[in-house]
Amino acid sequence: MLEMTREEFEELVAEALDRIPPELTRLMDNVAVFVEDEPAPDDPELLGLYEGTPLTDRGEWYAGVLPDRITIYRGPTLRMCESREDVVAETEITVAHEIAHHFGIDDERLHALGYG
After folding, report:
1. Residue 99 binned pLDDT confidence (cut-offs 50, 70, 90)
2. pLDDT at residue 93 above 90?
3. What's the CA gap between 17 and 11, in Å, rounded?
4. What CA–CA distance (Å, rounded) separates 24 from 99?
C-alpha cells in the first residue's frame, strides 16, 4: 500500500477542492468536507461519501439543518493507487464526484461523464 500521512492526504483534498471552478463553489450551500481514514466496515473500498440533501431536492422547508457532509476516505484511495500521481488524480475525481451529488447528479450520470 502506498504511504501518505493524513496531513498530506488532507492537503491533496484541499487542492482538489481548490480546482473546483469558482462558479460552482459559489453555489455550494451548507456543506462541509471531511477526511477520514476508513469507511464503514460494510463498504471497505468506498472512496467518498455524500450525506445530505442535494440542492435540487431542497425546498422552502430546508432551514436550520446541519450541513451536508462530504467525506473522502484515505485508506481505500491509498490501497488502490500505485503512485502519488495516481492519488492526486483519484482524489480529484472523488471530490468532484461527491460535490456533484451535492448538486443532485446521480451515480449513473457521473459514470457517463467519467467521474465513476
Report:
1. very high
2. yes
3. 10
4. 9
* The pairing of beta strand 48-51 with beta strand 68-73: antiparallel
Tell me how far CA of residue 15 lies from CA of 6, 11, 82, 104, in angstroms. Answer: 14, 6, 20, 23
> What's the 3-state SS for 48-88?
EEEECCCHHHCCCCCCCCCCEEEEEEHHHHHHHCCCHHHHH
Given a cut of 80, whether residue 116 has pLDDT beyond it is no
Residue 75 and residue 39: Cα distance in Å, rounded? 8
Torsion of CA 45, 91, 69, 63, to 10 degrees: -140
**Residues 94, 50: Cα–Cα separation, whole Å:** 10
The structure's pTM equals 0.92
Residue 81 to residue 56: CA distance in whole angstroms: 33
Q: Which of 82, 84, 97, 68 is nearest to 12 (CA)?
A: 84
Contact 95, 110 (CB under 8 A): no
